[in-house]
Design brief:
alpha+beta, 9 strands, 15% helix, nine-stranded mixed β-sheet, 6 helices, single chain
């Protein structure tokens, strides 16, 4: 199953991400092999981003100390590279930012204001030889899902959100102030430390999931999700 290996595609990242860089460490990579969803976090995917050791240590320490350890959300590393704040973190929210759904019916009810389309990708592990993807979209936003048999959940494949009516589970939405966004994760005022930040990147500590929150003039103007699924992400 050579095509299961992680290959960083240009699609959503070229559109949504201002600053990209590579991890130099494999942070406790958790591999899922032989799944219908075609996921595998390999050394190649773990090396797709780097936490720059030359970044400002004082600022990194400030963000680490003041990250809100709420529920199962935890942070392992923080880095600032140019205009990007990168956070290596764990917690169910980062895998299910719109909520956790066990079937397509509940997911469609949650996203009922969006159009819906079923697509198929080749899958040599499936008896039918293909696996369905579920694309929810409107004129300027989309989120693509796949059903994951091992977790019995609908999981995100990719997404780009610029519609303020699509609100994440923790209240994040396009148009919110950068300070309000940061207040969701940090217990102290981070305004002075984030004046030059235009991108906040959350990287999952175990599986291949990335969030990109893109700001312009201190307003959130797009939210992008990327994963290590080797399928069409558009």
């Amino acid at each position: 199953m050579k095509y299961l290996l992680k290959v960083m595609t240009s699609g959503i990242l070229v559109i949504c991400v201002i600053t990209l860089y590579s991890f130099s460490d494999n942070f406790g990579s958790k591999q899922k092999l032989g799944l219908t969803a075609h996921r595998k976090l390999s050394n190649a995917s773990a090396n797709a981003h780097t936490l720059n050791p030359d970044s400002n240590k004082i600022i990194r320490s400030f963000f680490l100390k003041n990250f809100k350890q709420q529920g199962d959300i935890k942070v392992s590393k923080v880095n600032i590279n140019h205009d990007t704040l990168s956070i290596l973190s764990s917690g169910w929210f980062f895998y299910y930012p719109l909520g956790m759904f066990h079937n397509l019916t509940t997911l469609r009810n949650r996203l009922k204001l969006l159009n819906f389309k079923k697509e198929y990708v080749p899958d040599e592990t499936s008896p039918s030889g293909k696996t369905p993807l579920y694309r929810f979209y409107n004129d300027n936003s989309f989120v693509k899902y796949i059903y994951q048999p091992d977790t019995k959940n609908m999981e995100i494949v990719s997404g780009e959100i610029t519609d303020p009516s699509i609100i994440l589970r923790n209240g994040t939405k396009v148009g919110m102030d950068k300070t309000d966004f940061l207040d969701l994760y940090f217990s102290r005022d981070t305004h002075n430390a984030t004046k030059k930040i235009n991108v906040v990147e959350f990287i999952s500590a175990l599986d291949g999931m990335w969030h990109y929150y893109n700001f312009k003039n201190d307003k959130l103007y797009s939210i992008c999700f990327d994963t290590d699924y080797q399928v069409d992400k558009k």
